[in-house]
Amino acid sequence: MxxxxxxxxxxxxxxxxxxxxxxxxxxxxxxxxxxxxxxxENEADLRQALVQFQPSLILSDFTLPQxxxxxxxxxxxxxxxxxxxVFFSGTIGEERAIEALKSGAVDYVLKSNSKRLAAAVRRAxxxxxxxxxxxxxxxxxxxxxxxxxxxxxxHAMLSHxxxxxxxxxxxxxxxxxxxxxxxKHGQYAAAWTGLLDESGAALIQxxxxxxHPHLFGAGPFTLDLGARGPENLLLRxxxxxxxxxxxxRAGAVAGGPLxxxxxxxxxxxxxxxxxxxxxxxxxxxxxxxxxAQLFDVGEIKLLQELAGDISFALQHIRQEARxxxxxxxxxxxxxxxxxxxxxxxxxxIDSAPPQxxxxxxxxxxxxxxEINHTxxxxxxxxxxxQVASRLRRGEPDNGRLAHLGGGVFATAFTGLGSEAESFRxxxxxxxxxxxxxxxxxxxxxxxxxxxxxxxxxxxxxxxPALMNSAEIALRNAKGAGERVMYSSPLLxxxxxxxxxxxxxxxxxxxxxxxxxxxxxxxxxxxGAITSFEALLRWFEPDNEIVAPEVFVPVLEEMGLIDVVGExxxxxxxxxxSSWRAAGSRARIAVNISARQLGHGDFVGRLRASxxxxxxxxxxxxxxxxxxxxxxxxxxxxxxxxxxxxxxFGVAIDDFGTGYSxxxxxxxxxxxxxxxxxxxxxxxxxxRNVWAVVATITSLADSMQLxxxxxxxxxxxxxxxxxxxxxSEYQGYFFSPPVSAVAASxxxxxxxxxxxxx
Length: 757
Known about the structure:
Radius of gyration: 38 Å
Strand order of the largest sheet: 19-20-22-23-24-25-26-27
Oligomer: single chain
Shape: flat
Helix content: 40-55%
Largest sheet: 8 strands, mixed, barrel
Number of helices: 27
């Protein structure tokens, strides 16, 4: 036998005829498959062979006197789910073969076509090897993820210590900060640092922190390098010039008094890492922890890197790298400085497509000088670091952020769709910096500031010009006492109008100036009113109506759309309740925003909005746009399925104007498709649009969905919609939106009934 060949496969045959098994073995041998086989013919022997014989592959007849092939397959899936199973039979039919494959068999071969057996066995073994390799890779990936999770705390400590290295130039202060970071970010129980004196004969404590500050010795103290005692771990690191470890776990090398101290304090282990100046040790950085699996290879590697960084900082070997860093970044906040920001800004401009809009916003923190004067410079620095952290949290690309000095921060905004989008920059800054207080010395501190904005290309064709325009706008804002100023007077006027609109909206919300109007939906077949759509209207005190397309987007940006949407649901439910009491079965459709649907507790809020008046049949339809549904499709489906179980209907509003595919549409729990009014108004003069409407109505009919045409204004449109099979319509041809009282009158319901007012 040639021992260099691949090992023989172990083949388990479930076969009641011995000659058939031998013939199958002979066929495999002729095809060059080295194997050994064992034959069984009942369930008990099969179970025993699966454990003892440890087969590489199972080859089974389908029809057996004592039990059938499907039973054999079930047993094998139960006992050895990873071993490939192939049917080799002369009696298996196509339907049973398909059933077998669905149940876990990887292939079937007819005995009349035994020449295919070897190929089927090879393919089954190869596919099984590939599947096992994938599983091993997945297992390694999971283990890697767990390892990374455990290393995150050390990464955090390393990052913060490196930041301290860049900021702190005093050795003692750096070591104290390293101990503090080890406790706070590394989550160690104790941290200790010490430096050798000038003679190299004594180790003097520099800093200690944590729950057990005296674990490595009471300080400040001097340690004789020739002594023996609790400091053995520190001495060993200095003598060997390598890290030294003491652990409580079984089998660990004895650690003398220090190990007993670990046990007494409930700690799992300690590590000491030497600090160097060039080739000579100059001190020790020691840590102790109370969690299992301390100091694995990855953690030790990071800690060695940490000790190396501290060593480099102590001896100024990395001074040149630090200076290069400071040439581009602000050491206090870690953000880009003015030069680097200007360079990146120019890169954004150079790579911007034609007609692109770009904005630069400069934000100046108020009262920074006062904070520095009254609370101390360190508190002012902490404030600036927190501001930088808030900005990073809201901007995934930190390359767009900068600290220009003092309290001035800069942000570049690319990909603006219009100049009006720049009005949201103030909202962005306020959301990131103003909405939640900062913490200074344990006290809440709310900050404010001024914002100067410049737009490319209107306010500058290159980075220096654009930044200069933004700085002028910032100075103007501070001089005028305004929260925000633009470089362009026209934009300032438009921004002022928007701020005015925001203020009026807040007043309208507080004084309940919003109202609900109802537009009837009418059957194209009977002419009867089937339901209504609830529309939000805003009447200012002078009875001027503000168009929804003007104020609804601002409500969304202000975060008030949720509350207003829930108010509309409640109002619709009250009206429905009055109609129900009068015997009417009419429904009301209410528009739901993407923000509302995005709430994890959407259905709970829905219940709370409609209240007890909804009963078991709320008679409310939820109208959602395609874009709001597709933002998080799986979550939307789950939420809407639950809402439908409560009796709510679901309609896709403005259907055809979004980007949903048929595959997505069939997954959605939808009752109605609403044809956008732009299609309805153009379908008579544009055959392509007419074809779109025809497709929508045909699609809805085939899926047994209702269709509602929006914005119907003429009898001719009505004729075409009826011809195309549209179910219902709404629009000014029948009626504009009316009050709930008028809608009740249309239904023949007493306008004085509760809730109709």
